[in-house]
Amino acid sequence: MAKFELVGSPEPFLLVDLVQGEKIFCESDAMVMIEQNLELAGNLRGGLFQSFMRRFTTGESLFQQEIKASFGHGQCLLSPNIDGDMQILNIGPQQYTLSDGAFVAATEHVNVKAKIQANLGGGFFGDTGGFVVMESSGQGQLCISGCGTLMEVDVSTQNGETTIDNGHVVAWDSSLSYNIGMPSSQNRGIVGNLLNSFTSGEGMVLKFRGNGKVIICSRNRKSYLTWLSSALNLNRNN
């Protein structure tokens, strides 16, 4: 199986080592360096439906890159499209659910598929979540990325419900149960929850229960991109 290793600091590269015949899949434009024995191609992995699901619901690219050691042993370097940290996950007995844009690369026998959550409206009123996530299956290694620094948060039934801002969630154990809703845990009603969300400055949150880990990032990617766009427009106008 291809081997993943993070190299460099503070924003690492993903170094991939492949022997002849092995291949990996990675997000479009992730390739930084590739050695002569490796081939790079585009692939509609998972079929046309899954490819369009990734593209139009999660922001992932329609085509994923496939890197194969066609002519012998070789290495390549990969990096995410936005600045930040990465983490390698071992896939097998433990599977993970990924938020939008978290996928970087996976070994050949790991699948990452888009899944639509039920009940979109419930997400706004504190019930079961309604959005699209990516879910892993198979066995091997999976690399994820997040804006800023990554950290693991342990969720335990002993601690009850753990609430995390949606924009800071990168991935979590698929065994965890979760709801998407407003940050308020009190019975304020629809209008009260909306008002509390507005006045507190918090948007949607994920509420986790069970035993497992959630991987979070220190920066909210959407907020960062909004700030960056505003700063660039301000400089342009000046």
UniProtKB/TrEMBL annotation:
It holds the Pfam family AIM24. It comes from the Bacteria. PANTHER family: ALTERED INHERITANCE OF MITOCHONDRIA PROTEIN 24, MITOCHONDRIAL, TRYPTOPHAN RNA-BINDING ATTENUATOR PROTEIN-LIKE PROTEIN. This is TIGR00266 family protein.
